[in-house]
Amino acid sequence: MTDLFSQPLIRDLQPGETVTGFFVLRRSELRTKQDGSPYLFLELGDASGRIQASVWEDAARLSEQFSVGQVVKVEARIRTYKDKHQLNIQRIRPSVEEDGVEIRDLLPRAPLDTDDLFKKILAVVDSVQDSHLNRLLHRLFDDESWTKRFRDAPGGKLWHHAYLGGLMEHTLSVARICDTMAGQYSLINRDLLISGALLHDIGKLNEYGVEQGFIDYTDEGRLWGHIVMGGRTVHNLIDSLNEDPPFPDELKKQLIHLILSHQGKLEHGSPVLPATLEAVILYYADEMDAKTNGLKHVVEREGRTDRRWSPYLNIMDRFIYLAPYSEREKSD
Q: CA-CA distance, 73 to 192, in Å (whole number)?
């Protein structure tokens, strides 16, 4: 069985080195060189990131041997092109059963202890005093099949919390931010806000899939989106509770509003704008945690270089100043 821990990670590859290892094939395109002959353009991935690669010889034949989502073994030399590392592949083949490599071994995972994260999530659930909301939350978080998926789900595709366990990490962080804000303003319905924080992204369980060897949208994720799916899940779950007394209609309206409005803007995917104090807080808590996590990974990735500024980030419409973090790492 192959020891994946012995092969270098993509994030640690340096120009001039030669690497032999297993990667997930994320993209494969047969392209044409300037002289008219074909070459194979690939994007490969492992638990640490992605890298572009090229196969210059026998490209047409090799292109028929691989499919996206497949594990491949490559021998390649690392080079730099337009300030980015690339692999110049000398040898490549599909992984076989004898290699002992599982696709999930090549997926990124949460950097924190997921068992500990889940215990902390359950503590937040138990802190909700409203009996209707408490029963609703326990209906989900006591369901072993649902929580198994929740504990393993990514929180994003590429930008923030884009790793197994990322959704749980993000959910706990948003709930903590909301709890702090609820303690600052007595007008806030803490139980409603915390419940919204715990449920705001549950649609992501069905929005993303990893079966193809990397995090990508499911058909439902592209067609409906996690906001609609999450709102529908909570709506149907409340209707199935059969409580006596029944779940209050006003509470149901406000809770589902938190889910539907948590992206904050129509152009960001929310069908409605935040219209309650709790919804506004949830939007900013979600935004704060998502952007901080995304930028953290930019700083960690680019901080491995001597750059003082990051490349331009289209998603945030700005450059990020890296120097303080690079200098901090050097001093440590």
A: 50
Total structural domains within the chain: 2
Q: Is the dihedral of CA 302, 307, 309, 311 positive or negative?
A: negative
- Looking at the structure, tell me whether residues 117 and 243 fall in a common domain: yes
Same domain, yes or no: 208 and 273 = yes
185-231: pLDDT as tens digits: 999 999 999 999 999 999 999 999 988 888 999 999 999 999 999 99
Sign (positive/negative) of CA torsion 16, 18, 24, 29?
A: positive
Estimate the share of the chain in helix, then strand, then coil, as percent rounded to the nearest 5: 45, 20, 35
Residue 308 lies in a domain: no
The encoded tokens of residue 226 equal: 């996690």
User: 120 in a domain, yes or no?
Assistant: yes
Give CA torsion, residues 285, 290, 292, 293, to 10 deg.
140
- CB distance 263 to 227 below 8 Å: yes
Amino acid code (one letter) for 297: H
| CA atoms in the 13 A half-sphere facing the CB of 171 | 32
Q: How far is CA 84 from CA 133, 243, 296, in A?
A: 49, 58, 19
Locate 266 and state its tokens: 């129509």
Q: What is the CATH number of the domain that holds 40?
A: 2.40.50.140
Single-letter residue type at 71: V
Residue 326 resides in a domain: no
Task: Report the C-alpha gap between 230 and 219 in whole angstroms.
Answer: 15
Domain region containing 39: 4-105
Tell me if residue 79 falls in helix, strand or coil. strand
List own/partner pairs for 315-318 with CB under 8 A and 24 or more apart.
315/159, 316/291
Residues 277-316 have pLDDT tens digits of 999 999 999 999 999 999 998 898 887 677 889 989 998 9
Question: Rounded to an integer, what distance in angstroms lies between the CA atom of residue 122 and that of residue 117?
Answer: 9
Radius of gyration of the chain, Cα coordinates, nearest whole angstrom:
23
Backbone angles phi, psi at 124, to 5 degrees: -65, -45
